[in-house]
Amino acid sequence: MERGAVWLSVGKRIRAAREAAGMTQAEVAKALGVSEASIRLYELGKRKPNPEVLERIAAAVGIDVQALREIEVESVRDALEVLFRLEDACGVTPRPDGTLRIDRMAEHAPKMVTAIEKWAEMKRRLDEGEIGEADYEAWKSRVR
């Protein structure tokens, strides 16, 4: 997926995931039982797939559907709302120095900590040139 484009459209995410899976539009269309034109229209953003179709696309390219969904974060307030929800779900809380911490006693904290550790390892591998950008983005789209 493109770097620098913080919030990609659903269509661009579908295309990036399909390409990362090494599939053509025709192959994804066949897996879904839809026309190739439908996949093309989704990728171009001229048509928005409904939630069921989005699930099927994710399954066809082997990723979690969350990697395809848009997250609308257009302001600091929007970003704070995401953090507030992470506080409730995973015990993410702010520190006085502006960094974040995870309350390891929170219900979903152990899973979150494990996921962040894996993320840190993959980011290190990218930064050190062990893996390329495409591999890193493909890994992010497969995280469950």
From TrEMBL:
InterPro entries: Cro/C1-type_HTH, Lambda_DNA-bd_dom_sf, Rad_response_metalloprotease. It comes from the Bacteria. This is Transcriptional regulator. Residues 14-68 form the HTH cro/C1-type domain. It holds the Pfam family HTH_3. One of its GO terms (molecular function) is DNA binding. It comes from Gordonibacter pamelaeae. PROSITE patterns: HTH_CROC1 (PS50943).
